[in-house]
């Protein structure tokens, strides 16, 4: 449900930057001959030419819409250029678009706190930049205003007398008698125009933007004038914007809550909410949601720009509509393996480039039952601690699916092996990794982190047999919330000390050890660190993989010293001590 957050102050300057038909622009940059032509990007699908996921503005003029299939688009616009999304593992590969989006984010982040909301949209907190401009070089002191800024749309700016629009914008931006909030907004207009031009210069991508005093209003404004334009919302124009705004246009009001407002309360526009006192809304929808509704009707939104350049989670998913639904466990396992392989690659890349580690693996699915009247029951999401390594992620994801399927169908109705149809179907399948946090840099720090994580999960270790036993006793509650499944944690045999990478990051085979080695560094004699060549380290691993004994390295000695200090502390530390005592004699 929505969370009510009061405004910290009404003098913030927030921008929402939205790329214009971004997937098309990425393809046009790769194929410049497509510029100016009606173009659409098609997601991999053999049925009716595939689904359109982005449509250029040239194609929209002919009536092409994103809801169409490729064949439908050609009927409406015979000259349309259809570009297929790259395919990997039988599904769309969006890495090229993600990387292009990162280019844009790196430019926007130069002027303020930046929150990447999706592949093609970003929030910016430009308050500090606006305050600095207002103090050092205020708009009213500027001799000239950039042409792009003069093209801005300012809500509430009267231009009905036929006067020059750009001149009216210039006068509004340079007003000396404006209040502090509008002066800051004027500075925001100038900063955003400059950033958009810099994005165009460095990437060849156009974008649109909304500038306001909070994220909610900036998001609404960014889509009002597209493409390659920007819209500002002065505080005095907020009521006029929201009075006639359809309730479904507001974020978080497009689902059940919005439907309830329309049917139960007769609310069709955001402005209609103004007739209800806060207490009435709280009585009907709860204290938190009621306060949130009361706030948005007045344009109040205290949500902060989080300052996040990297994604909070990684995910990989695929839909199987209609006759393509997965109806056997073996078919589900095949696609889970493909999805988990992609997820594992992205996790290893994140670890290598950003030194971040994920903690939780979650499986989501949509399903149907062909012979059950309980058609509203949803497939339960399941989660467990994430273990690095493609094979381990695949194994855990499949166990999560089996646990969810037992709960969805009921244990006695589940067929967990074979290829026979069992009366259910999967129409959507996805795996995600979340709770991603940075880890310390340097070999010792990384090793210490992973060993600590391994010991923290030690007390919750279970065998596969116990997992299946637990799943058998799950009753078909149909819960929509994530439930955690305790999957088997790795065993620490430590047969050879040169394999400390494998043991501290459980389940990695030799190839995956090579991937992880990219993020490690070693200490030199002078105390500084230097990167280990991935080729060199992987070569060493290959040379030593058959050895049974060798002397402790400096890092392994560090393990012994640090673990020795943990005696007599908490239970977790005692378990770690016991683990260490297990393999110390073998190393001597």
How does this model look, in words?
The protein has 588 residues and is α+β, with helices and mostly antiparallel strands. The protein has 22 helices and 20 strands. Helix content is 41%, strand content 15%. It has a 6-stranded mixed beta sheet with strand order 7-8-1-10-11-9. Strands 12-16-14-15-18 form a 5-stranded mixed beta sheet, with helices on one face. The chain is globular. Residues 454-482, 488-563, 565-569 and 571-588 have low confidence and may be disordered.
Main features:
588 residues, alpha+beta, six-stranded mixed β-sheet, five-stranded mixed β-sheet, globular, disordered C terminus
Portion of residues in beta strands equals 15-25%
Tell the overall outline.
Answer: globular
* Mean pLDDT level: 79
* Lateral strand order in the biggest sheet: 7-8-1-10-11-9
Provide a count of the helices.
22
Gap from first CA to last CA: 58 Å
| Secondary structure: helix percent | 40-55%
Radius of gyration from the alpha-carbon trace, in angstroms: 28 Å
- The count of strands amounts to 20
Give the low-confidence spans: 454-482, 488-563, 565-569, 571-588
Instruction: Give the biggest beta sheet.
Output: 6 strands, mixed
SS content category = alpha+beta
Summarize the structure.
By secondary structure, this protein is an alpha+beta fold. It contains 22 helices and 20 strands.
Blueprint of the fold:
Elements: E1 14-19, H1 22-30, E2 39-43, E3 51-55, H2 57-60, H3 70-76, E4 81-84, E5 87-88, E6 91-92, H4 95-108, E7 113-118, E8 121-125, H5 127-136, H6 147-150, E9 153-154, H7 165-173, H8 180-203, E10 207-212, H9 215-222, E11 230-232, H10 238-243, H11 256-265, H12 278-285, H13 287-296, E12 314-319, H14 329-354, E13 356-357, E14 360-369, E15 382-385, H15 390-409, E16 424-434, E17 437-438, H16 443-456, H17 464-472, E18 483-484, H18 500-504, H19 510-517, E19 521-523, E20 529-531, H20 534-544, H21 554-564, H22 571-587
Parallel strand pairs: 2-4, 9-11, 10-11, 15-18
Antiparallel strand pairs: 1-8, 1-10, 2-3, 5-6, 7-8, 12-16, 13-17, 14-15, 14-16, 19-20
Helix pairs in contact: 4-8, 5-8, 12-13, 14-15, 15-17, 19-20
């Amino acid at each position: 449900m929505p969370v009510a957050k009061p405004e910290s102050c009404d003098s913030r300057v927030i921008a929402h930057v939205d790329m214009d038909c971004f997937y098309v622009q990425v393809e046009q940059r790769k194929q410049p001959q497509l510029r100016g032509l009606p173009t659409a990007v098609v997601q991999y699908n053999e049925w009716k030419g595939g689904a359109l996921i982005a449509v250029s503005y040239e194609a929209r003029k002919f009536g092409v819409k994103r809801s169409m299939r490729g064949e439908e688009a050609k009927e409406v616009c015979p000259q349309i250029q259809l570009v297929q999304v790259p395919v990997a593992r039988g599904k769309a590969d969006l890495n090229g678009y993600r990387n292009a989006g990162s280019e844009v984010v790196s430019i926007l982040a130069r002027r303020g706190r930046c929150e990447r909301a999706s592949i093609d949209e970003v929030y910016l907190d430009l308050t500090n930049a606006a305050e600095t401009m207002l103090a050092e070089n205020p708009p009213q002191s500027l001799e000239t205003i950039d042409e792009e800024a003069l093209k801005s749309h300012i809500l509430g700016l009267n231009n009905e007398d036929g006067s020059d629009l750009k001149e009216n914008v210039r006068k509004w931006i340079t007003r000396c008698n404006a209040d502090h909030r509008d002066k800051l907004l004027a500075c925001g207009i100038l900063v955003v125009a400059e950033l958009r031009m810099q994005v165009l210069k460095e990437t060849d991508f156009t974008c649109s933007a909304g500038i306001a005093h909070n994220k909610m209003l900036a998001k609404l404004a960014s889509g009002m004038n597209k493409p390659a334009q920007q819209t500002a919302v002065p505080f005095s124009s907020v009521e006029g914007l929201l009075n006639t705004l359809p309730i479904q246009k507001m974020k978080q009001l497009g689902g059940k809550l919005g439907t309830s407002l329309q049917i139960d309360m007769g609310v069709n526009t955001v402005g209609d909410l103004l007739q209800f006192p806060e207490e009435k809304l709280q009585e009907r929808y709860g204290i938190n949601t009621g306060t949130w509704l009361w706030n948005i009707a007045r344009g109040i939104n205290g949500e902060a720009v989080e300052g996040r350049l990297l994604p909070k989670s990684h995910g990989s998913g695929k839909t199987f509509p209609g006759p393509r639904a997965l109806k056997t466990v073996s078919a589900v396992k095949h696609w889970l393996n493909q999805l988990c392989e992609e997820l594992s690659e992205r996790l290893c890349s994140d670890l290598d480039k950003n030194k971040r580690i994920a903690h939780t693996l979650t499986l989501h699915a949509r399903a149907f039952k062909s012979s059950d009247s309980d058609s509203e029951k949803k497939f339960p999401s399941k989660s467990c601690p994430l273990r690095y390594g493609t094979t381990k992620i695949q194994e855990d994801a499949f166990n999560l699916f089996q646990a969810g399927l037992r709960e969805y169908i009921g244990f006695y109705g589940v067929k967990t092996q074979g290829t026979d149809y069992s009366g259910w179907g999967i129409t959507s399948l996805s795996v995600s990794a979340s709770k991603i946090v940075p880890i310390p840099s340097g070999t010792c720090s990384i090793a210490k982190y992973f060993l600590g994580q391994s010991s923290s999960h030690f007390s919750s270790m279970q065998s596969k047999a116990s997992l299946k036993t637990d799943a058998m006793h799950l009753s078909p509650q149909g819960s929509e919330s994530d439930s955690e499944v305790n999957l088997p944690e790795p065993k620490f045999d430590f047969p050879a000390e040169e394999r400390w990478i494998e043991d501290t990051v459980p389940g990695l085979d030799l190839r995956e050890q090579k991937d992880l080695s990219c993020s490690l560094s070693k200490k030199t004699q002078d105390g500084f660190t230097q990167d280990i060549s991935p080729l060199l380290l992987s070569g060493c691993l290959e040379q030593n993989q058959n050895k049974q004994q060798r002397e402790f390295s400096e890092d392994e000695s560090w393990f012994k010293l640090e673990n020795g200090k943990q005696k007599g502390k908490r239970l977790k530390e005692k378990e770690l001590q016991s683990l260490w005592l297990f393999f110390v004699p073998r190393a001597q």
